[in-house]
Model the fold of this input.
Amino acid sequence: MKRLSTVAPSVVVSLAILLFIGIAAVAPNLLAPGNPLAIHPTASFLPPSLGHPFGTDESGRDVYTRIIHGAGASVLIGITATAIGLGLAIVFGLLAGLGPRWLDFGTTRLLEVLFAFPGLLFALLFIVIYGPGVLTSTIAVGLATAPGYSRIIRSRVLVVKRAPYIEASLVLGRSRFFRVTRHLVPNVAGSLFVLATLGIGQSIVWASSLSYLGLGAVPPAAEWGAMLSGGRTYISSFWWLTFFPGLFIVLTAAATTLLGRGLHERVRS
Amino acid sequence: MTLPLGPTATTTTAESVRRRSWLPWAAARLGGVAFVLWAVATVTFFAIRLIPGDPAEAILGGPGSQASREALAQARKDYGLDLPLGIQYLHYLGRLATGDLGTSYSLRSPVTTVIGQNLGPTLLLAVSSLLIAVVLALLLALWSSRSGRVAAAAGSVLEIIASAVPHFWLAIALILLFSTALGWLPPVSVPGPAGLILPALTLAIPLAGFLGQVMRESLLDALASPFVLAARARGEGESGVFWRHALRHAAIPAIGLAGWAFGSLISGAVVVETIFARPGIGRSLLSAVQDRDVPLVLGVVLIVAVGYMLVTTLTDLADRFVDPRLRERS
Done:
């Protein structure tokens, strides 16, 4: 067990950032009491100031308030996409890792084919078929990330399957069901937790990239990607419309990645 | 001419193992490539059939065009859409085999021409980004592996942040800094080297973050390993140890990332080419998706899959070249 003093400062900072974003997602009014959709035509395109720390947009809406109120939607998209990706990956990874040889062969070939579609391409192909929108872009991101997770889970299952404690359990005459549920799943779950932490930040980045390209959530929703896409027309003149929502995406992604790395070190040691 | 398949009197055992393992490996590899390409072509062909709406209508400019019955029937006949699905699939595979990717719905020219025009700029962008990323990652790894624990930790955090930054935001930040504030570089991609710098940097920085993370870890491993100690004991200088021994070791996991890096560069190119208004495969793909230009989407996806398979095959070859252990095993 590691003592608190050995926790890296980067992990503490990431936890603080994620706590802030978590509060914004669950109770945005604590951090920004204003209305994210309130329009003030006379106060449009105000640069960042004390009254509006991140400035205002084309309709005079406060960008800070919109970012805080948009956290819930963005985090939800990230969590849903990661859940879809990991859920599929668990099925693929367990089938390949525990099933008969032909099933492993088939699943591995399928994954190889899926790997030939780079992530965003797969998502774009999915969007061509099912049309743009929040739901399709979330599912697209989930599907696009599944092959990567599957490969990691499969190799993890293969390692754990050959571990001495599984052999010991076999010698003790435990059932296959017992071995899988009591030994294999808990040991694979550690790396799943790390993958999920890393994945949420990455999924938010991907989903917001799709929104930025105009294929995901659309304005006037206060979701971060939608804010980016709405501010895209004004990049050269009113930079704060895209800079600050993007900054929150970067903060979330960097914090989850740093935290995931920290957890990974812990699981490994 | 006969090929010596078994060990001959003049070859040593290790050599014969190497020679024997080469042919089956190449054959299996080629078979794998062919299988993946066929599967990609098949999956995309049938996935496209899931698109709701009449493809003939899409050819004639979408539902808004109010094309006449005769025009629709003519379009169906022209594009072979009136044939049974199985026949269409066989025709499609036959055309693919001869390098015919069909005609773009929106641009009215052959998909191969459109891709041919856009491949060059994207390749130039990808290769320059890759070079910049490798140089940045090397510099960072070099600096942080030699300057103690604090530098290593700082380098690691820097790499993680770099790898987590989305391309579109990095592009905006770079435009704000170098075009709006400093006025050094154009905000859109003009022809020539000046227009290439910002797009290439945007793609390179996150990639450098990933490469740096992977390389620094194995570089530190290598610098602490017996073979580096042995090299030092033989009187190898510090730079010789680094470039000839440790770096070669650290290159192996980085080469393993090449397939992934290719995918990330292509995905990034979609975003970067759009933001900087730069011609290329990524931007054509995005406009093809927006226009539901099915043949163009299919063509780009296939070309990217071919590129991916090429890169991973070259990666395996490079691995065997850099890592002598792989040649002697299997």
About this structure: The radius of gyration of chain A is 22 Å. Chain A has a mean pLDDT of 83. Chain A has one domain: 71-268. DSSP finds ten helices and no strands in chain A.
